[in-house]
Amino acid sequence: MSNNSDKVNLGSILSVAIDASQKAGTVIRQVWKSGKLGVEWKGVNDPMTEADVQAQKLIFGLLYKAFGKDLPMVGEEDTDVPETEEIPNLNLLDQLKIPEEYKNVDKKEVCVFVDPLDATREFVDGNLPAVMTLIGISYRGEAIAGVMFQPFVGNDDDSNGTTIYGMLGMGTNVPVKARDEKDFVIATTRSHATEFLEKATQAVKADRVVKVGGAGYKCLLVLRGEIDAYFFPIPGTKKWDTCGPEAIIKSAGGSFTDAHGRSIRYTIDTPKPNTDGLIVTLKGHDDILAKISSVLPKL
Ligand SMILES: Nc1ncnc2c1ncn2[C@@H]1O[C@H](COP(=O)(O)O)[C@@H](O)[C@H]1OP(=O)(O)O
Ligand SMILES: [Mg+2]
Ligand SMILES: [Mg+2]
Ligand SMILES: [Mg+2]
Fold first, then answer.
1. Alpha helix (H) ranges present in 133-211?
2. Number of the ligand closest to the Cα of 56
3. Most CB atoms within 10 A, among 15, 21, 81, 238?
4. Probe ligand 1: pick from 21, 241, 242, 274, max atoms within 8 Å of CB?
5. For 59-87, what is the mean pLDDT?
6. Is residue 6 among the annotated active site residues?
7. Shared-domain flag, residues 123 and 261
8. What is the pLDDT of residue 250?
9. Residue 264 in contact with residue 242, Cβ under 8 Å?
10. Looking at the domain assignment, is residue 2 inside a domain?
């Protein structure tokens, strides 16, 4: 069924990505239930498990099968891509209101960013709700569409998980509500804190700082109105952590920038690290940027 045309519908990619993220979630649950995570350490505080690798193989296999191996893709894990027996599902496309401008674009101007398992550290530590499969679709360097699939809604959970997706000009599949309370609440990393992060956190004068893992999970908390901002003004995340979540946050009318307020570019050859950190909000973005500017290194 591989489509070897030079043109592609971003809606078709989103449809297959949604299905692939859910199937990846099944793989992640199976590895968790087996109790054999097969943890390897790629670096300090940077684990990878059998679930990360198997999920990425499946996602790449499905997208290549549907769109051809010339679809530009970047994945977190360094792994081969065996042919998959699974069938890519394009059925969801009928329900998506894809803007005309994204229906027939040059495949070589697209790039799909895959984080097969975000919050691996939390997975290893058993903080399961933070775990998410993230797939982002960029076009001409901009995050346009994305899906975040949460396989474990609670720590002891047998549901089918939560699927959140969005596309610029189409919106999101779930209702979104900005937090609207008097106190100011931010979420930041649980496991990758630095001295500078502490200093920057003080500079924004939060009433409460929630420390939880996962780039996708913190974006989910923003979308649900549980926090005012995802605050991570330091290096650590990579393009696959942010492309999908950024597209969803922007589809919901929110802001997703580096710590200096600049937008993030997503092409196959832009450097992978988000060197200048992340600030993610549905409202009040400029206030946060103004407060941290005094502690940031000058550009
Ligand atoms: N210093 C780091 N080294 C490696 N990955 C990082 C680092 N900081 C953040 N990340 C990635 O960004 C995600 C969000 O960060 P945090 O959980 O600290 O808030 C992490 O789960 C991890 O993604 P992944 O688990 O996919 O490797
Ligand atoms: Mg990782
Ligand atoms: Mg990640
Ligand atoms: Mg990952």
1. 195-203
2. 4
3. 21
4. 241
5. 97
6. no
7. no
8. 98
9. yes
10. no
Cα 116 to ligand 4 centre (Å): 6
Ligand 1 pocket by Cβ (under 6 Å):
46, 76, 115, 118-121, 189, 191-192, 213-215, 236-237, 241
Q: Is 120 a catalytic residue?
A: yes
Q: Which residues contact 225 (CB under 8 A, 6 or more apart)?
A: 176, 177, 178, 179, 180, 282
Cβ-count burial 250-264 (b if 16+ within 10 Å, e if not) = bbbebbbbbbbbeeb
Domain membership of residue 140 (yes or no) is yes
Distance CA 253, CA 283 (A): 9
Show which of 136, 170, 204 is a domain's final residue: 170
Question: ipTM strictly over 0.95?
Answer: yes
Alpha carbon nearest to ligand 1 atom 26, residue: 118
Whole-structure pTM value: 0.97
Residues 140 and 213 in one domain: no
> Domain limits at 226?
185-293
Domain CATH for 210: 3.40.190.80
pLDDT tens digits, 262-287 = 999 999 999 999 999 999 999 999 99
Q: What is the DSSP string of 223-263?
A: HTTS-SEEEE-SS--BHHHHHHHHHHHHHTT-EEE-TTSPP
Measured in angstroms, how far is the CA atom of residue 166 from the centroid of ligand 4? 20
Q: Is the pLDDT of residue 188 over 80?
A: yes
Q: What is the pLDDT of residue 1?
A: 53
The tens digit of pLDDT for each residue in 110-149 reads: 999 999 999 999 999 999 999 999 999 999 999 999 999 9
| 180 domain residue, yes or no | no
CA dist., res. 133 & res. 149, Å (int): 5
User: Do 213 and 288 fall into the same domain?
Assistant: yes
In a domain, 104, yes or no: yes
